[in-house]
């Protein structure tokens, strides 16, 4: 069956009905992701997931998402109390009225999904107790490190480990600023102004640049890593606003990068939690996490170091985490517990027997090494042959002949090309008189991160 | 309540009883991790997890783990059919008799946890159908990328995304060989022999160096990323045994690293799956995954690129993944579905109110920048002051005076020291006559990866 087909899996059960508190950047992202990936999400959840009711402060404001079929209100409590809403997503941010709305939803036994790190850091202990008492749940994957599934990794993926420590770059704004200070030698204030213009930093940047946002997130990570209550007030917090460009420069001279790190470690006699600018040896993975990206390094006694990297903020990445929580909730409410997560990620009757492409049809860049006779015109012949097949050369190394045979290696990188064409081109190259050994062919992937 | 205390949470329910097929490296690791972390695992699962019955080919062979209280047999079917065994862990490897044993366990409705990538790649489709029909599950986190929770990340953490492609270094042996070929300029055969001596490669290395092991894993990753059946036979597979040291060197000259990559991408008209040596630009994260480590880069349409990094093999890392699956199973069998994963990772009455250390008690390295008068003896005074506090200097930069005031910066890195002592030392340094501006202090973490 093809991916798009509607089948009994999503037809059999009524859709899960979502109430959305907040239609700003993250709320808009959630609607977009749920709309765009509706079919894949239904295949994974075993039912459709529809946003049916949403609140916004200003109904006339411009939106980044379609609102078809969504009932709108300026009163978020209407959404919470709507008996036709099964699950609440809170993406308004701030403490008030988010706290009161979430409490009411939990009282009603409705699962709540939130991206609100400040609220979880400050009130998580009570919210979790309330959810537990009411037989429901508060999900908060989106509260830490945006789209990186770090909560799930720690609470579930590393559940066999004693977690010894974790260290994270968990504020994208701060990392953007530090990266620009390093790469462009600019001052903190100068880069902050740019970050504000680009929308990476708020008009009031205090939470980001004074480390408060990172401390919120660190208190959440430490709590789940060590199985202890949230203790935001105990996090030692130092921001990056006092950091000088010259210290960034001196650190580099010493072989270090300065990153704004959240760090938590378990000791015999207690736990340390701290957020501050930190020098990290330049070869470490965390030292190479740049710009607005986030990453968390977790040390478990069995697994050793593991690292989780990705986008720490933004509409779609945060929505990715919100929707992951939503699929978790939908699976819990839909599948029998033993089959909550389908073996192949989608419910069995939705597995798609996708065709597999032949290697002839893949497209990639190529590295070619030719061993040729050291004589005039050889390079021209090679280049012309490749050009005949429409293959562009991106880089080349020509070496001196390595022995008395006057054989010399020519190494080429090509732009991406279909493999079938490259195979023909290699055959033609191999047939050239000057080519005197089998051509070595490797593939090149530029990747993105 | 303290971490170690026995409380009603693990006392209330009888332990989950595990049957273990295979007591080699991975089996021994599983017993070790379950033994060492028994309390943490019980806090997370809501009940104890005990290995009660295990099979091994040779009962007299030396073991890496304690066997106290475990009933031993040479007949694995005894373990499968033991009515006092609730869950089966299969870590024997190979197709026969693992396949038959797993099928029997599923027939009996027992959840099966396996690290057997070859078996999942070849027979997963039937095993999953059988598990589904019998109301139980086959869990296989350990089958791909060792301790990295990549199956969970893709099936659950990225469930909101349309996954476009993924690329992974998913064979530790191959990556160890490539790293040594690059760093030491040695030939494939030379490094392979060393890897075999170190236990990183098997006596018959075919599965690792010809890419078959990576193809097994790629077929699993692609199936769950795209929601399609396992199609191992359709993976284009090329190993690293033909790779020449000179190509590794030329790739570097061009700004690339050669990695043995598994790559899967979804297209309009089908899916590509291929495993082969691949040139990757040297700045990419995957290009910097060295030695026996694994990493998988996954591109989701909402989240963008995310990366998962860690140990891809070894007794304890593989056990980490097996036990994560076991905790998943235990939570499913123990908690009500809405509270399968506790908010704070451990069941509510097991949350430990751990003390938080004062910053005075933390220990870290320090970066100090002092602005001093350019006069004789200043450096000696600084060094003597630090020595008085027992603080060792690891590195130093002294710059020329930057203006007419004859003030010059001295930058120091220290070995780790308690913060309280460092605070006192900074106070003493600040009091030196030659120090003419507030001392800048940053912290240093060496991390490990």
Report the strand count of chain A: 17
Class of secondary structure makeup of chain A:
alpha/beta
Count of spatially separate domains of chain A: 3
Amount of beta strand of chain A:
15-25%
CATH architecture field of the largest domain in chain A:
3-Layer(aba) Sandwich
How much helix is in the residues of chain A? 25-40%
* Bulk shape of chain A: globular
What's the end-to-end separation of chain A, in Å?
A: 34 Å
Strand order of the largest sheet of chain A: 3-2-1-4-5-6
CATH class of the largest domain in chain A: Alpha Beta
User: In terms of per-residue confidence, which ranges of chain A show pLDDT below 50 for 5 or more consecutive residues?
Assistant: 1-10
- Please, what is the CATH homologous superfamily of the largest domain in chain A? NAD(P)-binding Rossmann-like Domain
Provide mean pLDDT of chain A, rounded.
94
At the fold tier of CATH, the topology name of the largest domain in chain A is Rossmann fold
Question: Helical stretch count of chain A?
Answer: 15
Radius of gyration of chain A: 27 Å
Summarize the structure.
Chains A, B: It catalyses: L-homoserine + NAD(+) = L-aspartate 4-semialdehyde + NADH + H(+). Chain A is an alpha/beta fold and 449 residues long. The first copy, chain A, has 15 helices and 17 strands.
Describe, in plain words, how this protein is organized in 3D.
Two copies of one chain form a homodimer. In chain A, the strands form three sheets. Chain A has a six-stranded parallel β-sheet with strand order 3-2-1-4-5-6, with helices on both faces. In chain A, strands 8-10-9-7-11-12 form a six-stranded mixed β-sheet. In chain A, strands 13, 14, 15, 16 and 17 form a five-stranded antiparallel β-sheet that branches. Chain A has helices spanning 8-12, 25-36, 38-45, 76-81, 98-107, 117-133, 150-157, 172-184, 188-198, 206-209, 212-226, 245-253, 315-334, 378-388, 419-431; strands spanning 16-21, 49-55, 71-73, 87-90, 112-114, 138-139, 163-169, 236-237, 256-267, 270-281, 293-300, 304-311, 363-373, 393-398, 407-414, 417-418, 440-444. With 449 residues, the first copy, chain A, is α/β, with parallel strands linked by helices. In chain A, 36% of the residues lie in helices and 24% in strands. The longest helix of chain A is centred in the last third of the chain and has 20 residues, at 315-334. At the A-B interface, helix 2, helix 3, helix 6, helix 7 and helix 11 of A face helix 2, helix 3, helix 6, helix 7 and helix 11 of B.
